[in-house]
Amino acid sequence: MTETFYEVLRRQGITRRSFIKFCSLTASSLGLGSTFVPKIAHALETKPRTPVIWLHGLECTCCSESFIRSAHPLTKDVVLSMLSLDYDDTLMAAAGHQAEAIIEEVKKKYKGNYIVAVEGNPPLNEDGMFCIHGGRPFVEVLKETCADAKAVISWGACASYGCVQAAKPNPTRATPVHQVISGKPIVRVPGCPPIAEVMTGVVTYMLTFDRIPELDRQGRPKMFYGQRIHDKCYRRPHFDAGQFVEQWDDDAARRGYCLYKMGCKGPTTYNACSTVRWNGGVSFPIQSGHGCIGCSEDGFWDKGSFYDRVTDIKQFGIESNADKVGGTAAAVVGAGIAVHAGLSALSRARINHSQENQQGGN
Amino acid sequence: MTTHHAPSPTGVDDDAVARAPSLKSIYVYEAPVRLWHWVNALAIVVLAVSGYFIGSPPPSVPGEASDNFLFGYIRFAHFAAAYVFAVGFLARLYWGLVGNDHSRELFSIPVLTGAYWREIGAMLKWYAFLRPYPNRYVGHNPLARISMFFAIFLGGIFMLVTGFALYGEGAQAGHWSHTLFTSWVLPLFGQSQTLHTWHHLGMWMIVLFVMVHVYAAVREDIMGRQSMISTMLSGYRMFKK
User: Fold this and answer.
1) Does residue A313 contact residue A320 with C-beta atoms inside 8 Å?
2) Domain range for residue B194?
3) Is the pLDDT of residue B19 over 50?
4) Nearest residue of B to residue A344 by CA position?
């Protein structure tokens, strides 16, 4: 029998008091009432830890970096222990064949009862040779590992949407996980990286309730991705008032006005940055004076400048956007109308003139 | 030649009226169609102007944030006009069912009728100065009909669907606009910024339509063979020659 979470925590010298604190904080970060604190505690005390295999495809490890900084009371030791993170090639001590053997072992021992967390994505071009995992294309390892999993978590923009390696022209054909894996529940946790507490929150929910959290149509947990950053932004009053930063060093910037005109993507980005914030709730990009770049949205690398609210339309040249295309079209049509009106007047005048001449001739 | 006499200072001149040629007129646009046209035109103007400002906000207002609500009012104007546009659109659809034949012209194009396409050719020739006069059309001329079908009927549906999907983003899950539109439109377009861009392009498409529409109506009124602008006020189409 695998150890329960509680046993692991106690063995690591964490007091019961800290443990209960963690349960309360987790309950509140998940938006659950205080009645859920004992339930979370009970689950962590009695349930065997669900094994997690954490795979790395084409990625930059920023998801892992974020994850290990989850700042709620019982920090990284606890989170890592909670998970029973049996395989994670960037964090584990084992290497080589020993490490790879763990995947096989987990697959056999916990068939249909383990979670695969995927960071990064598989490239499909050249038979997947752009990302090699243990001597084999990553896409093969991913498919095999997910085959017996209970659920799959797509960490970050890479696994969820493709991110920078899938940006046009996507030379390696980097492909998000849900387009490769089918028949398994997939939880997408986008962001570049996702917020640490969002990651631990999703995992804790799955362990506590033994089911995946409620997802929206894009497969994102509604509790963290149900609202836009804009909807909970503390600078929203300046937006509604019509007070905007016009330049990075202007007075409005110093006063903390809305960054909408600086191309802030908060109004088009679904994430929890403005509520959960980063680095243990210290700040988030907008609070630090820079607009949101929309890193948790599909294809955010291909939507033009991070400092423009209107998306570039590549078909009309690199620097085009909807306003330039529309404005140019309106100018062309307006000029066309003016010329046509002039020609119409001339042609009518000529017809009238010739009619008068005819009448004069009669 | 009849003798000219000085016009009466009152403007009354029954003789001149008696001598003037009579124009033929046909009742074309029923009152609900005319009312809808002008309400819709006003809504489109408000929507385009407020929508443009939502994309490119005016300069910042000074003072406390709590003393100002400029951008809020701009957005309110946009949403209010959008509701007017939407309700008008539905009412117009209903009138298309119960109104006269001309009230249905907006919602279809007779693609299978060869004569329709020949008339389009005739209108194009008229606009290319290849004909001295256009043909006489009782309802919409064939070119107007096809442009209205695409720009106002299909374009209107596109703007309503994308617009309410954007509105539902702010109204959030649970609101009817989110349930009916945002829930499927947002995944269809991939993400919110793309949806914004399409809605924005739709605005420009309608601006282009309005420019051509107004120009063509004024020009037809002056140079064509039937009345245009007064027809949309009185409902009667008059034929001049």
Assistant:
1) yes
2) 27-58+78-239
3) yes
4) B129
**Residue B197: which of A309, A218, A298 has the closest Cα?**
A309
A227-309 architecture in CATH? Irregular (4.10)
pLDDT above 90 for A160 = yes
For A5-224, which CATH class? alpha beta
Classify residue B14: in a domain, yes or no: no
Task: Name which of A271, A277, A321, A269 is nearest A300 in CA terms.
Answer: A269
Cβ–Cβ gap A242/B60 under 8 Å = yes
Nearest chain A residue (CA) to B75:
A240
What own/partner pairs with CB < 8 Å and gap ≥ 24 does B117-125 have? B117/B142, B120/B146
Give residue A318's pLDDT band: very low, low, confident or very high (50, 70, 90): low
Closest CA to B170 of B181, B160, B159: B181
3-state secondary structure of A123: strand
Residues A216-249: pLDDT tens digits? 989 999 999 999 999 999 999 999 999 999 999 9
* Domain residue extents for chain A: 5-224, 227-309
Give pLDDT tens digits for B182-228. Answer: 999 999 998 899 999 999 999 999 999 999 999 999 999 988 888 89
> Quick one: average pLDDT of B47-56?
94
Q: How confident is the model at residue A324 (pLDDT cuts 50, 70, 90)?
A: confident
ipTM of the assembly?
Answer: 0.87
Tokens (6 digits) for B27: 């009742």
CA distance B31 to chain A (A): 30
Query: CB contacts < 8 Å between A and B, how many?
Result: 133
Predicted confidence at residue B1, as pLDDT, reads 47
Domain containing B211 — which CATH number? 1.20.950.20
Q: Kindly give the interhelix angle for A16-29 and A196-209, rounded to the nearest 10 degrees.
A: 100
Over 50: is that where the pLDDT of B110 sits?
yes
* CB atoms B193 and A268 under 8 Å: yes
Element (H, E) at A9: helix A5-11
Residue B197 within any structural domain of the chain: yes
User: Which pLDDT score, from 0 to 100, does residue A359 have?
Assistant: 62
User: Considering the domain boundaries, does residue B189 fall inside one?
Assistant: yes
Q: Count of alpha carbons within 13 Å of A259, Cβ hemisphere only?
A: 27
- In chain A, the N- to C-terminal Cα span, in Å, equals 116
**A114, A100, A270: which is closest to A203 by C-alpha?**
A114
Searching chain B, which residue's CA lies closest to the CA of residue A218? B187
